[in-house]
Design brief:
Radius of gyration: 16 Å
Number of strands: 6
Number of domains: 1
Strand order of the largest sheet: 3-2-4-1-5-6
Shape: globular
Strand content: 5-15%
CATH topology: Rossmann fold
Helix content: 25-40%
């Protein structure tokens, strides 16, 4: 069985898990639209990630309110049934005007859903601000423990950029590989673990990234 290597120390660890692949036959950019569930492949991905996390001591389990995240978190909970699945809107998907448009529209923009949009929508700094609120609240209430939170790709990437001392911007989102932060955009069902050793609010955590799909095929 594949095991995940997470730094083991007396600090606080928060594993940000991206949801599994989504059933999206119409190929739209679904964003926060309701009803988008995991595909069959996404269910398998979520089950593989749950298996990787099976033997780890997890103290709390959180999820974005969106269905795909709740389904992915439920797979993890199969091995940690004592945990109550808690939802947090602080780690939900990006609020964007591209929601509901064809995926190719966003693809042609290089994944940039931030440049040139109205002020009523989120910018990377808005996402980072709410995610950091969730992170600090979790570090305060679960100090010294391991917490898992199922969330979304940009939520994870902007937090990783900040932890690596890079600005959370659309430009850096496009450049993250060249910046040497991660070798890939957080894959579906991947695990990005933030490890903290102090209780300082602005501590930049160390980062461990694990993609179960790569290891399962070896």
């Amino acid at each position: 069985m594949v095991t995940i290597e997470i730094p083991r120390h007396t600090g606080t660890r928060i594993s940000l898990v991206r949801h599994g692949r989504v059933q999206n036959p119409s190929h739209i950019f679904y964003g926060r639209l309701p009803g988008f569930s995991l595909s069959k492949k996404g269910c398998r991905e979520a089950a593989e990630t749950a298996l990787v996390l099976k033997n780890l001591k997890i103290e709390e389990l959180f999820s974005s309110p969106l269905l795909r995240c709740r389904q992915s978190a439920t797979e993890i909970r199969h091995y940690h049934s004592r945990l109550r699945l808690r939802q947090s809107r602080l780690i939900t998907e990006v609020h964007t005007p591209f929601q509901g448009q064809p995926s190719k529209v966003v693809r042609l923009r290089g994944g940039d859903v931030y440049t040139g949009i109205g002020t009523e929508y989120e910018q990377p700094e808005d996402i980072l601000k709410r995610v950091q609120k969730f992170i600090f609240r979790t570090r305060r209430t679960c100090a010294g423990k391991h917490v898992v939170a199922v969330t979304h790709g940009d939520v994870i990437l902007f937090m990783v950029l900040w932890a690596s001392n890079f600005a959370a911007t659309p430009k850096n989102k496009k450049r993250f590989i060249r910046l040497g932060i991660l070798k890939e955009y957080p894959a579906t069902s991947s695990i990005t673990t933030l490890s903290y050793t102090t209780d300082l609010k602005d501590e930049r955590p160390s980062i461990a990234y694990f993609n179960p799909a790569i290891h399962m095929t070896r």
